[in-house]
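Q: Start with the shorter request: fold the first protein.
A: Done. Sequence, then structure:
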Amino acid sequence: MTTTAGLAGHELIKGHGTGNDFLMLVDPDRSVSVSAAEIAAVCDRRTGIGADGFVRVVRTEALPGARAFHTAVPEAEWFMDYYNADGSMAEMCGNASRLFAAVLEAEGLVELPDGTSITIGTRGGARTVTRLGDLWTVDMGPARLATVKNPQADAVTEGWDTQVTVPGLDGARAALSLAMPNPHTVVALGEEAELAAADFAGLTDSGEPVSYDPWPTAGTNLELVVPLGEQTDPLTGAIVGLARMRVLERGVGETRSCGTGCCAVAVALHEWTGRGAPQDYRLLVPGGEVGVHVGSDPLAEGATILLTGPAEITGRITLARS
């Protein structure tokens, strides 16, 4: 493994939410020094342990730069210090949030019986996670149309702002840019065969990888989605939108799921459908299934998005000292 000196001798907890996997370092007082290069090394799937992301479980009051946040949200005792697999910082992650709460409980740091909630800190703001039996619901906060420099179309009136060219798909596709708060670019496809044909690791006919016009200045997650119609929830009678999707995650590559990406997809589907659109969505990802509640107007001031799905701790490993 490439050097991970800062992590040597420390236990990492491995887990996932619908196949989106993470390494969690329980470090309440932030006593472990970890660099971006060390995070990338330990997340490498060939020479490291392997994960889509790395999370330090830390007390908010121990995190440099979080003093103002801790004062404003004192109930957020714990902070999800989250990094992409390449070591870059990320705003937050819905799948990691569920696993974060599960790890806090498993380590005896909090008690979360069924139906109870905990507020955690993230770089995207405070998030509330609620246990619902074997599932967890995360209040993901608001969705917003992303600010796009020199957009190709008006997102409000046209429903798209960016053109995306994906290897394996013919031509440039219209896409909607959203912030959850991570940046997302959502493309609707006509059929599942197109979804399967998309080659996130390949090149287009012009010899280029996935490209955007305009190019997102802060990077972006790309979601490809195929709407599969609507269903009626047998318990509530509510209309539920169904869709299948894939994710190309910023700083990671293709992942089996993405919590904020699922929320962005549900919001995009709601906005594209217009009046009478479902308020709830079942999203099928390669790693399983999640539910997203967007409400009647997900882009309205004060609106919030709810993400529900599983979280599973799969193992523990202590890195050897050299």
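Q: Next, the second protein, separately.
A: Sequence, then structure:
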Amino acid sequence: MEIPKTMRASVLREVGVIEIEERPVPKPQANEVLVKVAQVGVCGSDVHYYQHGRIGDFVVEQPLILGHEASGVIVAVGSGVNPERIGERVSIEPQRSCRKCEFCRSGHYNLCPDMEFYATPPIDGAFCEYVTIEEDFAFALPDNISDAAGAMMEPLSVGISACQKGGIKVNDTVLIAGAGPIGIMTLQCALAFGAGRVVVSDISENRRQMALSYGATEAVDPRTHNLDDLGAEVFIDCSGAEAAITAGIRATRSGGTVVFVGSADVIPLSVPEVAMRELNVTGIFRYTQTWPIARHLLASGKVDVDSLVTHAFGLDEVELALQPESTPNSLKRVVIPSVRTVENHER
């Protein structure tokens, strides 16, 4: 396959402005592979950068390619990579750590202070035709995992990491707040981890029904349903809503675990309640070593993410894809860089 010298890339120029640019095709370093991008999921963080130009301390100060949930095909390799990998379909774990600091050396590379993560300023992401990644972060996909599912292995890894931090055991009762894409994936992971009862709370009737269709034991409206007596061993917040977090903590049994996934602002937290009930309160920041687990869950059919993808867009339509109001009934949107536009965005 002949690799072009330049590629098309969708670039965030400033808040609310996306433009198509011609960029040089990146060259893989010795330990890297060059991937022709197949599909890229649209994440809430991409939307936030597009709308606000920053997330916390990460500020867009120069043109940036968004997109970090990606799958594709290896089309070239660096000098230190087996050339037999060319042609391999892969899912990309979109981060590069230093591999030398105490966090990396202890296996907690997600906490590396020098982490370079796709689509986090100033590191470019995958809303483009080609990307490079260290070869051990390009995970081969079996034939029964689609390109879309390969891209969804990134948000699925968030759900896996949340369940790992929660320490979910066989027959546990788990409460999940928020039935968006991450909440639904976390729900499926909790069931795959052995949870006996998974209760999902969301204010949206449509999303509650969706949670039930993906195996939730119960789906409740937190505005009308009191969860205080639930006694969950594990509470996972995927909503970022203060009211949901407060209710979830009350619903967690003494000695249980609370895991923050949603991006909440600073909220009041009752230290006496945490201390006297010995609650284990933690959070997740991305993931480590989750791709093999995600691949198994998808290949075995224990988790379904393909059905979560409701809309697709071409590379020229990234700006539209970053406007959730343009597809109000969408759940998960993907970008297909190999095409300019998609005639019918619904899948």
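Q: Describe the second briefly.
A: The chain has nine helices and 20 strands. The chain has a mean pLDDT of 96.
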